[in-house]
Structure formats: structure tokens, C-alpha cells
Inverse folding.
């Protein structure tokens, strides 16, 4: 049981490390939580632990799992022979840290433009917005993915890639120089 | 070993009956008693918006935006950190606002932790100001601390705060610096507890704090997915929990409360629930809302237990308090 769990952790870690080169972008970033970034010994002793802070693995075979709605999936990755459940949105995972304690706070009101861009909202259609095609919105500077079962939701992960720090410090998928990020969706 | 099938069957049934009795008596249940708070007016009904426009948005128990810490006083009044509104709100034991002004309004930016002492002073951590602020019962600031005076001693995103029941010392979770800071009652810095890491006694984004009836300090070591226990002299004496989704494991442990029988309640803002441990630190219950599933917790943070043993949960992203009775 314990051995299986450990093997599962290692397997998952290897899958991540080998299949997603972007994870290299996490190492040393503010999303690298391996025993606190400054603890070099811990990081060296736990090279596969980089994923599990957000991709929490199953820790039992008894079936007594906690609330499955909060798990986050990493696409094709499987654990113990089954895919991890995909939550309604990835934002819930982000917000479990970005509440002002572990990480800076994100506004609780998804319609409050004064503190953050709205999230947990459906991507609008019509004048002023580029059309979403296949769950992506594409502008001159790149594409932004929408989320949810219908791939029509704006979530944290639409503008931020938690696996890639990017040129700035905000894990933006498209740097907002000259409003390039904004203009990917907003047609002005 | 039974030799007759009938006797085997009878023995089995009796065993099952006894097992059921033991199981039934051993497993507690959670029962939602009442809730305080509602959605912001911007997400409320048109009538509600018109009412807010005509009479002003209510500044009371119905209008919170992201609740973090919660504490109760000796009379079971509830003090909560209304984080996005930058204030501390006091409620009576029934959840109705006390007739007093909001505490810290206009001063606080991001209040997270809240604690009380026997004199009625209110201790608040502010993760945007990087400060510990202490208000007297009239709402005046009587102490403001930005951390130890020495170089590198500043607070970074402080969250949990606790007033030591035995000594009156103030203990602050210096979350962003992976340590705790201890002050005397006058606010003089005394010591640090812990450093970054994963070994026993190390901390990795510690958040909320609690104390058991023996004076032991419980630290929610959030990113290490565990709780660490220190004796009254701040010596490490134990730990429990790990990363995972089994009973007793955590995703993102945050709030913690300990009742008069040393039973432990810990919120998990990743799994959107509360994990209950008995006095032997054995996990005995996980719940994520009401039993009828009509209410689900969303990113719960602080938690407190009152003199009746009722559990007051800061249902952070639902902008409300949920009060549960645990039927042991």
C-alpha cells in the first residue's frame, strides 16, 4: 500500500517531468513549494515533489477519498489506473493559496473589475470580443484557452499558466506589453 | 472457530451487530445549525440592488466579502475577519451583529487572523499591511507590530494569531517567512519558532494556530500538509497529517480549532471541507457542507469552537459563516 503510493508519486512525477517541458518553468519560481524554495537539501531529496502541491495524489486504495470535486486534473495523466477527476474550474485550486495567506489575495467578487479581471465567468460573444474557436481565443500575440466542459469559461488558467513563469512574474500566457494580453480577447 | 453453519451464522450476525453499534457510536456527524451572510449585493436580486441603492448596502451580518479568521469570546460572541471589506465584525451567539462599530474599518486592508484576550482586546493580522494590530474593546489601536526589530525580522503575509492562554504571549504566524513570531503582552519581540523546510519543526507557509487545554501549540503547516504540535516551551512534540485525499490527509489545511475535550477541527480550502480528529488525533469525520448537500463549503478558512462545542466555520468564498453542531 505504502509502496504503491510511493511508486504512484514517483510515476506521476516522472510523467510530469518527461511529458511537460513547461514544468521546468516551475523550478525556482513562486510555484516551487518543495520544502520552501530556500531549503536546497529538501529540494534535492525530493525531486519529484514539485507537482503534488497542486496535483494532490490519491493516498488510499480504500475508496474513502475526500471531496473529489476539488481535485485538479493534468490532462492525460492517470493515477492508479484511473484519471483524476476534473473540477468545475481550475480557479478553485489557485484560490486555495491565493487568499492572502500562502499567496497574494485575489478578489473574491468575480465581477469586481477594481481588484482583478473577472473569472468564473462565461466568455462573452458578440461585438468587442474575438470569437472563441475550439475553446481558444486567438489574437495577434497568441491564444488563450477557455475552460470547463463546454470550453467557454474564463478562469485563472485562461490568462495565467501556473507551470510557466514567463518573462514577468505573474505567470501570464501572453505578456501585457502594449496591452497584448487584453487585446487577445478584447477587440479595440 | 465454529463447527456448525448455524452457529457460524449466528456468531457472524452478533459480530456484525456489535460492530455496527461500535461504529455507530464511534463516528460523529456534522449538523448545520445556521448560516450568517449572503452574496454581495452586486450578485443579489434586482430588488436587493435597488434596496442597497436607496438605503445603502447593509453594513452588518448579511454583507461579508471573503471571511478569513474567526474567534469567539467567553460569552460566545463571534469575531470575524471580513477580509475584502477590511474590518472585524462582532456578532452575538445567534449571529446577529452587535451594536457597535466595525473594528478596524479604514485601517485594515486584508485582515486574516483574529484572536481575543481576557480583557476584550482584539488581535488582528493584516496580510497586506504586513502587521499585527491590537484593538481595545472600543476599537482603538493600542499596538501595531511589523515584526521583530532586527534586520530580516519583518512580518510577511501574517495570517494566524493566538494569545497564549497560560502566559498571555502573542504568537503570530509569519506565513511568508515560514516561521512564527512570539511577543510578550506589551508587544516586545521574544523569539521565532521554526524555519523553512520539511523536517520536524520546519515550516512551509504556516497559517492558522490553536492551543489545546494543556497549553500545547498547534500549527497548521499548510504547504507541508500537516499539523505540528509544540509544547508550551515551543519544543516540537509531534505532528499529524500528510498530503493526499484519504481521511486524515490534507490538500490545503488552513483553519484549526480545538474543543474542551482536545478534539481537533481543521478546514481544508483545497478539498472544501472540515476534517475532525478525536482526542487521540485519529481522523473520524470529513464533511464539506450540510448532510442534505444543499450547502457546500467553498474554500473554508478560519474555524472556532464555542462553549457549546458548536463549530463556526469561515466559509470564505461563499461570503458567510456556517455553524455546525458535531454530534459525538
Amino acid at each position: 500500500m505504502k509502496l504503491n503510493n510511493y511508486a504512484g508519486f514517483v510515476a506521476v512525477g516522472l510523467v510530469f517531468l518527461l511529458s511537460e517541458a513547461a514544468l521546468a518553468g516551475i523550478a525556482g519560481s513562486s510555484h516551487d513549494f518543495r520544502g520552501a524554495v530556500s531549503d536546497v537539501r529538501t529540494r534535492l531529496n525530493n525531486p519529484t515533489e514539485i507537482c503534488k502541491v497542486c496535483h494532490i495524489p490519491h493516498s488510499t486504495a480504500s475508496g474513502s477519498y475526500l471531496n473529489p470535486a476539488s481535485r485538479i486534473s493534468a490532462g492525460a495523466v492517470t493515477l492508479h489506473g484511473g484519471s483524476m477527476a476534473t473540477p468545475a474550474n481550475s480557479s478553485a485550486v489557485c484560490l486555495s493559496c491565493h487568499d492572502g495567506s500562502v499567496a497574494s489575495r485575489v478578489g473574491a467578487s468575480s465581477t469586481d473589475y477594481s481588484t482583478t479581471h473577472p473569472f468564473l465567468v462565461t466568455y462573452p460573444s458578440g461585438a468587442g470580443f474575438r470569437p472563441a474557436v475550439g475553446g481558444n481565443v486567438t489574437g495577434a500575440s497568441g491564444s488563450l484557452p477557455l475552460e470547463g466542459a463546454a470550453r467557454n469559461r474564463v478562469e485563472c488558467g485562461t490568462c495565467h499558466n501556473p507551470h510557466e513563469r514567463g518573462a514577468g512574474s505573474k505567470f501570464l500566457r501572453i505578456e501585457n506589453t502594449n496591452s497584448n494580453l487584453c487585446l487577445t480577447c478584447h477587440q479595440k | 472457530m465454529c463447527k456448525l453453519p448455524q452457529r457460524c451464522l449466528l456468531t457472524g450476525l452478533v459480530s456484525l451487530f456489535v460492530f455496527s453499534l461500535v461504529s455507530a457510536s464511534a463516528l460523529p456527524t456534522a449538523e448545520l445549525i445556521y448560516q450568517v451572510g449572503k452574496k454581495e449585493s452586486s450578485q443579489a436580486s434586482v430588488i436587493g440592488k435597488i434596496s442597497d441603492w436607496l438605503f445603502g448596502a447593509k453594513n452588518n451580518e448579511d454583507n461579508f466579502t471573503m471571511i478569513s479568521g474567526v474567534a469567539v469570546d467567553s460569552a460566545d460572541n463571534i469575531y470575524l475577519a471580513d477580509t475584502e471589506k477590511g474590518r472585524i465584525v462582532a456578532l452575538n451567539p445567534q449571529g446577529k451583529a452587535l451594536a457597535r462599530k466595525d473594528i478596524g474599518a479604514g485601517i485594515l486592508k486584508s485582515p486574516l487572523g483574529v484572536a481575543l484576550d481576557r480583557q476584550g482586546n482584539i488581535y488582528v493580522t493584516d496580510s497586506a499591511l504586513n502587521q499585527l494590530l491590537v484593538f481595545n474593546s472600543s476599537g482603538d489601536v493600542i499596538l501595531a507590530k511589523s515584526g521583530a526589530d532586527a534586520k530580516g525580522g519583518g512580518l510577511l503575509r501574517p495570517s494566524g494569531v493566538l494569545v497564549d492562554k497560560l502566559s498571555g504571549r502573542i504568537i503570530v504566524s509569519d506565513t511568508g517567512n515560514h516561521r512564527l513570531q512570539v511577543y510578550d503582552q506589551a508587544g516586545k519581540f521574544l523569539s521565532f519558532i521554526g524555519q523553512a523546510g520539511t523536517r520536524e519543526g520546519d515550516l512551509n507557509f504556516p497559517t492558522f494556530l490553536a492551543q489545546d487545554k494543556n497549553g500545547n501549540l498547534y500549527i497548521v503547516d499548510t504547504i507541508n500538509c500537516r499539523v505540528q504540535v509544540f509544547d508550551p516551551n515551543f519544543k516540537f512534540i509531534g505532528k499529524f497529517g500528510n498530503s493526499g485525499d484519504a481521511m486524515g490527509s490534507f490538500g490545503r489545511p488552513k483553519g484549526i480549532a480545538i474543543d474542551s475535550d482536545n478534539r481537533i477541527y481543521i478546514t481544508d480550502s483545497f478539498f472544501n471541507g472540515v476534517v475532525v480528529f478525536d482526542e487521540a488525533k485519529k481522523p473520524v469525520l470529513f464533511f464539506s457542507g450540510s448532510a442534505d448537500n444543499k450547502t457546500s463549503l467553498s474554500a473554508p478558512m478560519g474555524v472556532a469552537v464555542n462553549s457549546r462545542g458548536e463549530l463556526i466555520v469561515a466559509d470564505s468564498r461563499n461570503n458567510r459563516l456556517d455553524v455546525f453542531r458535531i454530534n459525538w
